[in-house]
Design a protein that fits this description.
The protein is mostly helical. The model has no long low-confidence stretch (mean pLDDT about 75). About 65% of the residues lie in helices and about 5% in strands.
Length: about 140
């Protein structure tokens, strides 16, 4: 999203809102054939709240009210479109790499805050979860 930062006159809130709308309408609904756009948006909001945390598929599944296979498919779509990154743990012992859980990170903290929305976004940007996600 270089154009957002290149031109200081662009309203970041409107930019991210239109980005999410375009992403949902064009990429998700048309290409991935997600039937319920609002449910996917709610899922993205739940995922934004779980950024910088270990991936536990049950948490976003329960919070968004979707089935586990749907949750895994949607997380996979978010990862393949580079909205989120599932960061594998690093350890010298290969067995520990396999056993430890991946961390979920949003690719853009501004987008995560925009999806998370409102006053909570300002609080979210100042909390511990945003810093490792930003780096």
């Amino acid at each position: 999203m270089p154009e957002l930062y290149a031109d200081g006159k662009i309203d970041s809130e409107a930019y991210y809102r239109s980005y999410v709308d375009t992403y949902l309408q064009r990429d998700i609904c048309n290409l991935a054939q997600v039937a319920d756009e609002m449910q996917f948006y709610n899922f993205m909001t739940v995922v934004a709240t779980h950024t910088s945390k270990p991936v536990v598929y049950k948490e976003p599944t329960d919070a968004a009210g979707v089935f586990a296979p749907t949750s895994k498919k949607w997380l996979s779509m978010l990862a393949s479109s580079h909205i989120i990154a599932l960061v594998q743990p690093y350890h010298n012992n290969i067995l520990k790499r396999v056993v430890k859980m991946s961390l979920l990170h949003f690719g853009d903290t501004g987008l995560a805050a925009s999806v998370y929305a409102g006053l909570a976004a300002l609080i979210w940007l100042n909390c511990k979860a945003a810093f490792p996600n930003y780096i």
